[in-house]
Amino acid sequence: METKNLPKFAVLGAGHGGTAMAGHLSLMGFDVALYNRSEGRLRAIQSAGGLELLTDCTDILPHGFARLDTVTINTHEAIEGRDILMVVVPATAHRFIAEQIAPHLVDGQIIVLNPGRTGGALETLKVIRDCGCKSDIVVAEAQTFLYASRSMNPAQTKIFRIKNSIPVAALPAHSTPEVVSELRKAFPQFVPGDNVMKTSLDNIGAIFHPAVTVLNAARIESTNGDFDYYTEGITPAVSLILEAMDKERVQVAEALGFRAMSAREWLYIAYDAAGRTLYEAMRANRGYDGIKAPKTVFTRYIKEDIPMSLVPIASLGRLVNVPTPAIDSIILLGSMLLQVDFWAEGRTAESLGLTGKSLKEIRHFILDGETEARREDVPCQGL
User: Fold this and answer.
1) CATH entry 1.10.1040.10 includes domain 205-352
2) Across the beta sheet with 64-67, what order do the strands follow?
3) Is 73 exposed, middle or buried (0-12, 13-18, 19+ CB in 10 A)?
4) What would be the CATH architecture of the domain defined by 9-201?
5) Residue 130 among the catalytic residues
6) What is the overall mean pLDDT for the chain?
7) Choosing from 305, 328, 341, 364, which is the catalytic residue?
């Protein structure tokens, strides 16, 4: 491969997704560094000099030994000289990653959250600026994650599927074409998204994950998750609650001046599943057949999707005076279920940097970006 004009990548996170992405990039001939917070996950990869990608579909999916020369717990070492920083960690760790990379960022670097959930790019940029970083960087977020993958052991990862099309939006929105152009040198699956508010509020997992898990808590605990999550866990009654939550999500987006697709629209676009109601559309989707429920209620469907998806939607609703009683109820029940205050831990309009802004100012910030004055007037906090 001609490498002269290819971007250099850092993959931040060495879990199921990060190892798949780092290995795939290496096999494609890209210069890639792999970072992880804890050294334990890296020792086997460091010892082997890379990791092995496995797949059952050897004719269409990447596989083989992927050499990785830089595998480190040192953030500066991981991102120095890198053009694109691919953040592949749970959304609950986005703030930590932003704090760690902020002192070392330089002009021209692109940060991509894979995925951003709801408000990921907004929160990450705010944390970076609050840490005193004045570098001219771009933060972007993917609507969902590129791979379905699983770490089989510390130095082996299996890729089951690579999605066909993933919208990516940058902050500001006018930087999206540039970001996608660079990403497509490695991943043709990335396509331009409208803006980070749309990628955030089109987060359909916010509707399908937390409420279904909370409302099936007794069944999950009594069966150890031994039932089909979507086809059995979503009954006509449960779907009514999902539709109420989905309506609130769409209304929050409209009040902010952005259009979010409904869950029924998403099912039709993603799976050609049609129905007069959300329940009918879910039943028409054969892609969900056989997917089992989580084995415990202590799952990312609650631990990640409530604070990083539902809480920011509800908080944005309060910002624009759109009530979200159905979403609020699931946040409350999930907090009681796990004995965690997800309102205190989750993303809010304040942590996204939107408190005090008018609708005009929010739209300007999303579409046109921060001003030079904003970058210059933030005091360094010495991280």
Assistant:
1) yes
2) 64-67, 50-54, 156-162, 147-153
3) middle
4) 3-Layer(aba) Sandwich (3.40)
5) no
6) 92
7) 305
